[in-house]
Amino acid sequence: MTSPPIWSPQNTSSSQMARFTRHIEKKHGVKLPTYDELHQWSVDHSAEFWESIWQDFSIIHSQPYNTVIKNGDAFHNTQWFVGSRLNYAENLLRRRDEHIALVAYLDNGQRTSITYKALYEKVNALAHHFKEQGITVGDRIAGVVANTIETVIAMLATTSIGAIWSSCSPDFGISASLDRFSQIQPKILMAVDGYYYGSKTIDCIDKVVALHEQLAVTQTIVIPLLNKQNEHTLANHKSIITWQAIMQKNTASELVFEQLPFNHPLFILYSSGTTGKPKCIVHSAGGTLIQHIKEHRLHTDLDDKDVIFYFTTCGWMMWNWLISSLACESTIVLYDGNPLVTDNVLLDIIDKEKISVFGSSAKFFDMLNKKNIYANKNHSLDSLKTILSTGSPLVAERFEYIYSSFKKDILLASISGGTDIVSCFLLGNPTLPVYAGQLQSAGLGMDVQIFNEQGESITQEQGELVCTQPFPCCPIGFWNDENNERFIQAYFSRFPNIWAHGDYAERTAQGNYIIYGRSDTVLNPGGVRIGTAEIYRQVEKIASVKESIAVGQQWDDDERVILFVVMQDNVTLDSAIIDSIRAMIRTNTTPRHMPAKILQVSDIPKTHSGKITEKAVNQIVNYNEKKIGLSVDQFISNIDTIQNPESLNAYINRPELLS
User: Fold this and answer.
1) Phi and psi at residue 293, in whole multiples of 5°?
2) What is the C-alpha separation between 128 and 142, in angstroms, rounded?
3) In contact, 624 and 554? CB cutoff 8 Å
4) C-alpha to C-alpha distance for 317 and 29, rounded to whole angstroms
5) Alpha-carbon distance 85 to 370, whole Å?
6) Band of the pLDDT at 657, cuts 50, 70, 90?
7) Which pairs count as long-range contacts for 548-551, CB under 8 Å and 24+ apart, including other chains?
8) Disulfide-capable partner of 270 in 100, 196, 278, 618 (CB 3.0 to 4.6 Å)?
C-alpha cells in the first residue's frame, strides 16, 4: 500500500507555477489540469515552453532571438535563442535601489550587508579595474574565495564584461587549486587572505603568493577577510594588490554590460577529480540564466519578497545557483564557515534574517538529527516556507524529522542535478504533495526518464537517470577538449545521443523520483544492482552510528559489500552493534544488501563540497596488489581533491579485507 503524502499544499492557485500554467493554457489554447500534463507539454513543445520563460520573466537583452531552437547534428550541438545578445550580470543587477541584496555571515559571527544600489556600484568599480588591466571578452578570472559579498561582486564584475568566472573555496590545497586553474590559464586571481572555520583562523597568504607565481597571472587581488596587512609577505609582489586599493578609486562612468550571444561561456566548474585531474565544465550565460530563472521562479516560487539561504562553498555549483536568485530581486543570505560551529548558528540566522527559503545538504540535516536538535523548540521560524536539500539522497526518515523539527506547513524539496548542468533535473514543486524519501518532480522542459540496461524507459524499477531531449543549460563542453571527445564520452556514450547523468534512480508510482546513488558507485553483488543510499538509509537508523560508507570489493569472481562505519563519540563497534546493523538491513532490504564485512573507521573521506567520496575508498579496497604496508598516495593519485585526506589512512592496511 502506498503511504500517504507527508505534506500537501493548501492553496496552490497563487503560486508562480499555477499562474504560469494558467498563462500557458490561455496563450496556447490547451488544458493542463495536472503537473504531469504541464510537464509533458513543456517537453513536447520545447520551443514554446522556453520562449515563455524568456518572455514571462523578462530576460533583459539588447538583441532579440530569431530562432528559439536550432537543432544540430547531435544533442549537444543544439543552439538556443539564436541571434539574441544579453548579459548574465545585467539580469542579476536589474534592481538598483536600497533593498538589501546580500547579507553575509562569517564563522566568527561577523555580519555585513549590501543594498542592490551599492552592489551595482561596487561591481562597476571592479569591472572598470578589470578593463584597466586589459581583461577582455573570453578571458578567465579565477577565485580562491570565501562565500562573501566580495566574491559575489567579483563574479558579477567578471561576467559583466564578458570574462569567464571560475572559483574554488580557500580550503583547497595548492595542488588541487592548480589542477583546476592551470588548465584554464586565468589572467587575474581573486583570493582571500584567510578564513574562519570551526572557531579557527586559517591564514592563506603563503598559498596566495604560491598560486600567484605558479599560475603566472598578471595580477592577484587579495580580499581582506582576516583584515591582516601582510606587508612583509606582499612587499616583493607589486602585481599583488588589495581589494581596498580598487574600491578607493573613483568610478564616475556607468557600467556598460557586454552584450554577448546566448551560448557565450559564463562559468567554468569542475568535476570532483578524485581519479585524475578535474574536468573543466564550461557553462553558457544564457543557458544558466534561463534555467535558474525557471527553477527559482516556478519550482521554488521565489520572488522579490523572499529571503533565500543555501549553505554552500564557492567550490560547489549550489553557490552559482544561489547567486542567480538576484535575478528574482530577492535577498540572499551567505554563510562562510562551519555550519555546526554552534548547534544553532544557521537556525538562529533563519529568525534573524527572516529567511523564507532555507537550503543545505542532506548531511547537515542528518547531523542535526543525530544531535537531537529540534529547531522549533527555541526558534519561531515564522518566515520559513520552503526547505531545500541536496548533495546526497534525503532519506524518508529525514523527511519525517524535518517536518517534526522545523514546521509542518513547509514545502520540503529534495533536489538533484549537479555540477554537470549547474542546475537540477529533479526538484521541488509548490503545487504537488510531498512523499517521504521522494523528489517531487522532473524540472519543466527537461525530458527526464529512467532507462534500463537495454535503453528502455521504465517506471517503478531502478535504472539510469537520463534526459532524452536537448535543454538550454547543457554545457558548452569541457575546456580544451578537442572535438568534444571527453565530453561526449562522459555523457553520451552510455546511450547514444541521450544525456546519461550518472545517477541510479527510480520513478515511483506517484510519479515522483528516488535517487539511490551514483551509477559508478552502484554495488553489484551477485549481479544485482544496489544503490548505496539504500544501505545508508538503514544504517542511519542505528543511534550509535554517526555515518557510514559502503563500497563493493571484487571477491571470488563476484562482488561483496564492505560497510565502514563511524561511531558516535565514545562508542566502539562491537558484535552487538554489528548484529543490530545486520538486522536492520536484513529486515528492511534484501539479502543482497547485507555487508560481508562491517568495519569501524574514524572518519569518512569527503570532497571539498562535503560529499562522501566512495570512489576513493573503492580504489583502496580494490587495489590489486598486496594491501599491507602501503601508503595513501599509492592508492589515490589526486589526494588534494579530498578535504580530509588523513581519513583515508583508516582504510588501508586492513587485514580484514584479505579474508
Assistant:
1) -60, -45
2) 17
3) no
4) 38
5) 50
6) confident
7) 548/604, 549/604, 549/612, 549/614, 549/617, 550/523, 550/595, 550/614, 551/521, 551/523, 551/614, 551/617, 551/618, 551/621, 551/622
8) 278
Residue type, 369: N
Domain assignment present for residue 529? The answer is yes
Residue 140 φ/ψ region, left for φ over 0, alpha for ψ in the -120 to 50 degree band, beta for the rest: beta
pLDDT (tens digit, 9 = 90+) per residue, 555-586?
887 889 999 999 999 999 999 999 999 999 98
- Which grid cell is 322? 544561489
* 619, part of any domain: yes
What CATH number is associated with residue 631? 3.30.300.30
> Distance between CA 494 and CA 467 in Å, rounded?
12
Chain position carrying cell 599560475: 215
Domain that holds residue 635: 522-658
Q: Which three cell numbers stand for residue 99?
A: 533593498
Report whether pLDDT(229) > 90: no
Q: Return d(Cα 425, Cα 415) in angstroms, integer.
A: 8
535 found inside a domain: yes
Residue 138's DSSP bridge partners are none
Q: pLDDT tens, 133-158?
A: 999 999 999 999 999 999 999 999 99
How many structural domains is the chain composed of? 1
Report yes or no on 549 lying in a domain.
Answer: yes
Q: Give me the torsion for CA of 492, 494, 499, 501, rounded to 10°.
A: -120
Q: Distance between CA 212 and CA 639 in Å, rounded?
A: 22
Spatial CB neighbours of 36, under 8 Å, sequence gap ≥ 6? 511
Q: Give pLDDT, residue 234.
A: 64
Q: Decide the pairing of beta strands 111-115 and 513-518.
A: unpaired
pLDDT-derived band at 636, boundaries 50, 70, 90: low
Bridge partner list, 517: 504
